[in-house]
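Fold it.
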Amino acid sequence: MNTVEIIKRKRNGEKLTKDELKFLIDGYLKGKVADYQITSFLMAVYFRGMDDEETLNLTELMLHSGDIINLDHIKGVKVDKHSTGGVGDKTSLILAPQLASLGVYVPMISGRGLGHTGGTLDKLESIPGFRINMSEEEYKSTLGKIGCVMIGQTERLAPADKRFYALRDVTATVDSIPLIASSILSKKLAEGAEALVFDVKMGSGANLQDERESEKLARKLVSVSRKFGKKAVAVLTDMKEPLGFNIGNWLEVEECIEVMNGRKIDDLLKVNNVLAGAMLWLAGKAKDIPEGEVIAEQALDNGTVYAKFLEMVQAHDGSVSYIKDYKNKKRPAYSRKIISDKDGYVNGLDAFGFGVASVMLGAGRKKAEDRVSPLSGIILNKKCGDKILKGESVCELFADDDSKISDALPYTEKAIRIDTKPDFEKKLIIDIID
């Protein structure tokens, strides 16, 4: 086979065989196919797409490019959740200890930020010492002891996806249904989970901003999961506005700690607890998703989730004292408030604009090798639908370099819409596909 001819066939909209996809993936992992050739292939897929059979084959090949963890020794249902990517989307940090505190095992392999959307691993690494790399035996042991584990892809778990993922982030090929589906599922199938809940974002801050495409992705994730013998549910959630108040790595961890200690943040709690309810239902701990949502909410109220979170941080060698010191706000050297120049109502906080601004501030990457600034980001002081007075702060930007704030300002200001009359409606849970 010939790499160039395979790329050309996909560029021309032709269907690739499983052998052709295997040739590309194996060649890339062995150094026989170059980064720039895979980038060209990814762009061809972005424009030409893949049918169901190609997507299934790509997923299977990425899955079998490395090890598949067997968790049969752990007696209990193993359920994981995955988000397709959003802005301020931090529910994984709450869900893993929340479900573990309720007797459900959560084996979670996460990713880094993609484009304007944040990544769970970057958030976890904002905790000093937190180790996202574990051997397979350590992964199994930690999961069995505390009920949850949150790691990144190792060189042996879906390594093809790990390398594809880094290229997609910096080559504008993130928002492609077959690439998103194969990436998510190759990781999730490798980790040993028996059931999967997908949080599929819809709106400007999603990786797929076209709502019809988001629904297609949700159905694809559920159908492909079932072809691999997994129970699956997809929850379509709103991402027109950032989720919660904090955007950025440590800032989002801090907000989750506050929620685990009793702070009520309506949109974050609603999305989190519906996802938790779906996980509990798949695990057989609730008769349906609404009952699971109630059980999940009660767990957050009794303090057991925070205790489990601290246990998880310690198991990953993270600094528990740093977590416990969360009330002593940790901020970078530079900040700037965005002030309203009129009275009115906040009718728009465009999630995409805030996501791009957070990258400019250093909370995400413009190039694969960029260093992420753990403390940089944005705190919203208002949410959509709120009344605001002239002189009040809409949000505050944080960075370790003042020039980054200057770079982020145009995106932030463009993302904010204040009108004289209220004109905002939001449906957080758009649909559930089960």
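The domain at 334-419 is CATH 3.90.1170.30 (Aldehyde Oxidoreductase; domain 3).
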